[in-house]
Write a structure and sequence with these properties.
Elements lengths: L1 E2 L9 E6 L2 E7 L6 H19 L7 H8 L1 E3 L2 H16 L9 H6 L14 H4 L22 E3 L4 E4 L8 H20 L3 E5 L2 E5 L7 E7 L2 E7 L3 E6 L4 E3 L6 E3 L2 E2 L4 E2 L4 E8 L2 H12 L3 H11 L2 E6 L4 E4 L10
Antiparallel strand pairs: 1-9, 2-3, 3-7, 4-6, 5-6, 7-8, 8-11, 9-10, 11-16, 12-13, 14-15, 16-17, 17-18
């Protein structure tokens, strides 16, 4: 996903690496102190990474993972509560308790350091196995962790948490809110495709480019956020020599999901909300994901591994070339 740039090259822009991806900040006009605001926002993201990444040995998250219990406060507690609510809302399809499964699959260090196939191979999808044994439908089961009103956290035995997607969505929303408040202008934060926007009154939505096969759609977003989850991006060579793995872990199997959904792009009330549901719909299968997104009134573009595309909500007109 990309924020399309107008011809005005004076639009303040800032890029840097964080959370294993490229972060981009855009301001629609110059408030006069863009560099200072960008540096503050960059520091905020680096601080979030230091506290919530499972690749930082001293992070608050890794301290919790190592102990199996602890007391969470601030952003960690907020995200854990949001994650618990997301697990319940998605009937267990979204589950941050897959950290140990990701490590077993070879995702044991920053994605930048993994052995990855070339882009052409990644674009075809990673781990779909047409002969994979069917799995039981999602059902209520023991949660990966609990957190009480006092912030006391208890992990289920053997569980390690990975907050990657939901933390990135929350971070995009949080930094965007700060940029909007302190700059007073329309702004956009893009964390590797997790995009959060703010548009001032009477201004045009941000145009976001979304690639679907050989087609590039331009979608205007005036509030909230956009997130994409797929098996064609974070892909690496599995350590056991059994082909490729991707980061969408099916909590039922503990392995990269064998889904016929290649990619889900969702526009939601927030980037965090879009991130949760994009990942949940990935695990539903193409037909089920399109039907559920439509029933829930979600705005999504859902691409199948065979090239079929489903459009729901505000972008449903794109199905007819609109």
């Amino acid at each position: 996903m990309s924020a399309e740039q107008p011809d005005d090259l004076t639009m303040p822009r800032h890029e840097f690496r964080v959370m294993g991806t490229t972060a981009t900040f855009l301001l629609r006009s110059d408030p006069g102190d863009a560099d200072r605001l960008f540096q503050q926002a960059q520091t905020a993201l680096l601080t979030i990474q230091a506290r919530l990444s499972r690749f930082e040995p001293t992070s608050l998250l890794e301290q919790l993972n190592d102990r199996g219990h602890g007391v969470a406060s601030g952003p960690l507690a907020l995200i854990l509560r949001a994650a618990a609510a997301a697990t319940a809302a998605t009937s267990g399809r979204f589950d941050v308790g897959v950290g140990a499964d990701l490590i077993k699959a070879g995702y044991d260090r920053s994605f930048d350091l993994l052995d990855k196939p070339d882009a052409e191979v990644r674009a075809r999808g990673a781990a779909l196995d047409p002969h994979a044994a069917p799995v039981e439908p999602f059902a209520v089961r023991e949660p990966s962790f609990t957190i009480d009103d006092a912030g006391r956290v208890q992990l289920r035995e053997g569980v390690r948490l990975d907050l990657g997607g939901i933390a990135k969505g929350w971070a995009a929303d949080t930094v965007r809110e700060r940029l909007a408040r302190e700059s007073g202008v329309s702004c956009l934060v893009n964390l590797g495709g997790d995009i959060s926007v703010h548009v001032e009154p009477d201004e045009e939505p941000w145009p976001i480019g979304v690639s679907v096969g050989n087609t590039e759609h331009s979608i205007g977003i005036g509030f909230g956020g956009l997130a994409t989850s797929g098996q064609d991006n974070r892909v690496w060579h599995a350590p056991d020599g059994r082909g490729l793995a991707h980061h969408i872990i099916d909590p039922r199997t503990g392995r990269s999901s064998a889904t016929d959904v290649l990619r889900v792009t969702m526009i939601g009330e927030s980037t965090m909300h879009a991130e949760v549901w994009a990942k949940a719909l990935m695990l539903e299968g193409f037909a089920g994901a399109v039907a559920e997104a439509d029933a829930r009134g979600f705005t999504t573009i859902i691409t199948a591994t065979n090239g079929d595309v489903g459009y729901t909500g505000a972008v449903s007109g794109l199905a007819d070339g609109g």
